[in-house]
Specification:
By secondary structure, the chain is of the alpha+beta class. The chain is about 35% helix and about 30% strand. Strands 2-1-5-4-3 form a 5-stranded antiparallel beta sheet, sandwiched between helices. Helix 1 (about 5-10) packs antiparallel against helix 3. The longest helix is centred in the middle third of the chain and has 22 residues, at about 40-60.
């Protein structure tokens, strides 16, 4: 089991990783952050709205399923949002440089980080 800071630092070893955070989607507050490249506090709050919106849409559609991850593809970056299954309301947020990142490996790293988190 890894601490929040250890898990986030491990995510920064992914090719192209710029920054990572663990976020409480109930409050929009960042529980931990690592790396640089953007304002993680602001990103945590903004991406909380993304997660809430997707959950609301799924409920409206009657989809009885869970979000595995949400991928936002920008011109120069990938943003990966992965809810932590073992802790409702918490998600991992990883920002990658698109020109250097391997998206499959980044998604796998988020999965591994989720599995190793100790709360």
């Amino acid at each position: 089991m890894a601490t929040v800071n250890e898990s986030l630092k491990d995510l920064l070893h992914v090719d192209g990783a710029l920054c990572a955070a663990l976020v409480d989607s109930n409050s929009g507050m960042m529980l931990g952050g690592a790396g640089s490249g953007l304002d993680l506090e602001l990103a945590a709050a903004g991406n909380t709205e993304v997660v809430r919106s997707k959950l609301k849409t799924m409920k409206s559609l009657g989809l009885a399923d869970n979000i595995e991850d949400i991928l936002i593809t920008l011109g120069k970056q990938y943003h990966v949002i992965r809810p932590v299954a073992a802790k409702a309301g918490i998600f991992i947020y990883l920002v990658l440089d698109r020109s250097k990142a391997n998206l499959a490996m980044a998604r796998r790293a988020c999965q591994d980080s989720e599995a190793s988190l100790a709360f």
